[in-house]
């Protein structure tokens, strides 16, 4: 379906991304610049970066596919996911941005190593866990990119993966977070504009929401209910009340504590951004999410009425948004613009994930575990090599796409929830949490997530998302082990602002004040 206009527009889009990467490379002078953009992100760049780190191929392809498959019972996703942005900024961002700037954190692993006085063991474990979940998540993103390019250019799946991988890897390797943040602002603007422009046309082409509801209710009356009855009576009817409880925790907390999301709070320039950023991020993302989900409903209605046919593919529902736009706006110019919009949605998360893989390996494992004396140039080189290898590995894994894109994305988020949520929340808010407890919690969560995920997928479906059971075990491990081991030192607890507050209460010791200890004064690895 691609014509010369499409090639020109897509080519121009890729040229802009590479150009931003080249511009960003001139601003990088040390590791902090590469990983955190020099802690210089302004309000809108920071807020859109948070939104687009959460937004992904799931937002346009997975969300519409989920809507196509399950109807209104899946609408809770449109509340839970935007809440993840607000949760991250409020419960993690306020504390971490302040202590990160004062104590020199470059990654969330820096915080965990400092707070739990475990400069090697917990740092290495959390870095490995972060790399694993980022790679899982990346496979889903590449699958989404391939769907777009295969549809657009009628090329083989592997060629689509290769093209996308080369472009994203190029500007991420060259420009670090400077490139990722500014390309994300560009891509985020395209995404928001595109959904606001195109989704209403698809919904209108199907006869509006009232007609759509009538049609999908004819397929299954529960498609227009807030949830499916329990127990699940069909493969698509898993959004039961008990599943939705676990689903809410999965999306709101799991996404908020994902390394590629939470690391962004360390790059914000001013603490005052955290006053309004949660509301702005929630509002922007909620509008986009609801419109995309309604588009999934509309395409299901069009298919049922015989006005649209999905492709013969295992993940056919993930083509819903694409084919809906093609049906409602039969103009090649609009198709080319829409292709850029979908690519922007997917690539704005993919590049952040790739950077997370590179920095987790180079900074947290190579520099702070194996080679503390490594200079900045060496760390940057190792990070770039890790990004290239990670991109190549996930491209290979993405050759066989999953039956539904949403499931793969949820699996990655589930592992994030099981491994990072408890150590982060306990570390920030419970002074009784210990290093041994954090290691036990993260290890148990990671193993339990793998075990319950395997059981759900290959043995017997669970009534709730598998990550919920892993989260419970992770919490029990943190509490039990922490109660049996010695507390962290008071200096560290005060210096990392640990306690049941979001902002330090008046009179509490602050990092840099008497009674507080800086990261650079401890045995934990120092920032170069």
UniProtKB/TrEMBL annotation:
Q: Does the keyword Oxidoreductase apply?
A: no
GO cellular component entries: plasma membrane
Q: Which GO terms describe its molecular function?
A: symporter activity
Instruction: Give the matching InterPro entries.
Output: Na/Glc_symporter_sf, Na/solute_symporter, Sodium:Solute_Symporter
What membrane topology is annotated for this entry? Multi-pass membrane protein
Q: Pfam families annotated for this entry?
A: SSF
Alphabetical GO biological process terms: sodium ion transport
Top-rank taxon, per record: Archaea
Name the CDD domains for this protein.
SLC5sbd
What are the transmembrane regions? 6-24, 36-63, 75-94, 125-154, 160-181, 188-209, 243-267, 279-299, 319-346, 379-399, 405-430, 437-456, 462-484
Keyword Cytoplasm on this protein?
A: no
Q: Which residues form a coiled coil?
A: none
Segments for region (Disordered): 502-528
Q: Spell out the subcellular localization from the entry.
A: Cell membrane
Spans of biased composition, class Low complexity?
505-518
Annotated keywords: Cell membrane, Ion transport, Membrane, Sodium, Sodium transport, Symport, Transmembrane, Transmembrane helix, Transport
Family indicated by similarity:
Belongs to the sodium:solute symporter (SSF) (TC 2.A.21) family.
NCBIfam families linked: sss
Q: What is this protein called?
A: Sodium:solute symporter
Q: Which organism is it from?
A: Methanoculleus sediminis
Q: What is the lineage of its organism?
A: Archaea, Methanobacteriati, Methanobacteriota, Stenosarchaea group, Methanomicrobia
């Amino acid at each position: 379906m691609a014509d010369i206009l499409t090639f020109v527009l897509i080519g121009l889009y890729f040229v802009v991304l590479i150009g931003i990467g080249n511009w960003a490379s001139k601003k990088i002078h040390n590791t902090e610049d590469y990983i955190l953009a020099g802690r210089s992100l302004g309000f809108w760049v920071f807020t859109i970066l948070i939104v687009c780190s959460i937004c992904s191929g799931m937002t346009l392809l997975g969300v519409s596919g989920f809507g196509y498959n399950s109807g209104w019972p899946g609408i809770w996703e449109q509340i839970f996911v935007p809440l993840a942005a607000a949760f991250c900024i409020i419960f993690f961002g306020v504390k971490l941005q302040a202590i990160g700037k004062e104590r020199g954190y470059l990654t969330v692993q820096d915080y965990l190593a400092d707070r739990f006085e475990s400069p090697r063991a917990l740092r290495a474990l959390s870095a490995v866990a972060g790399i694993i979940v980022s790679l899982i998540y990346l496979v889903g993103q590449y699958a989404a990119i391939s769907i777009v390019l295969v549809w657009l250019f009628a090329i083989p799946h592997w060629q689509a993966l290769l093209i996308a991988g080369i472009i994203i890897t190029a500007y991420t390797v060259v420009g670090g977070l400077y490139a990722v943040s500014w390309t994300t602002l560009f891509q985020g603007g395209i995404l928001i504009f595109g959904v606001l422009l195109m989704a209403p046309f698809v919904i209108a082409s199907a006869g509006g929401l009232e007609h759509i509801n009538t049609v999908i209710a004819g397929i299954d009356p529960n498609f227009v209910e807030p949830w499916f009855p329990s127990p699940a009576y069909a493969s698509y009817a898993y959004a039961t009340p008990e599943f939705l409880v676990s689903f809410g925790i999965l999306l709101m907390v799991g996404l908020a504590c994902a390394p590629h999301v939470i690391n962004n709070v360390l790059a914000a320039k001013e603490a005052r951004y955290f006053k309004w950023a949660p509301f702005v991020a929630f509002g922007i993302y909620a509008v986009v999410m609801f419109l995309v989900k309604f588009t999934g409903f509309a395409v299901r209605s069009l298919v049922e009425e015989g006005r649209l046919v999905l492709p013969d593919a295992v993940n056919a529902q993930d083509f819903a948004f694409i084919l809906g736009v093609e049906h409602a706006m039969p103009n090649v110019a609009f198709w080319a613009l829409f292709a850029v919009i979908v690519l922007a949605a997917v690539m704005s998360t993919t590049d952040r994930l790739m950077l997370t893989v590179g920095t987790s390996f180079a900074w947290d494992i190579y520099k702070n575990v194996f080679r503390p004396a490594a200079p900045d140039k060496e760390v940057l080189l190792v990070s770039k090599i890790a990004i290239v290898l990670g991109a190549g590995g996930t491209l290979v894994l993405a050759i066989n796409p999953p039956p539904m894109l949403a499931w793969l994305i949820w699996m990655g988020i589930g592992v994030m929830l099981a491994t990072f949520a408890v150590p982060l929340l306990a570390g920030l808010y419970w002074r009784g949490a210990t290093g041994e407890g954090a290691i036990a919690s993260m290890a148990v969560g990671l193993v339990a997530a793998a075990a319950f995920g395997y059981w759900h997928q290959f043995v017997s479906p669970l009534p709730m998302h598998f990550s919920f059971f892993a989260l419970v075990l992770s919490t029990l491990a943190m509490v039990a082990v922490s109660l049996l081991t010695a507390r962290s030192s008071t200096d560290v607890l005060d210096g990392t602002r640990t306690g049941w507050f979001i902002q330090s209460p008046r009179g509490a010791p602050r990092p840099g004040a008497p009674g507080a200890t800086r990261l650079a004064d401890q045995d934990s690895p120092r920032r170069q």
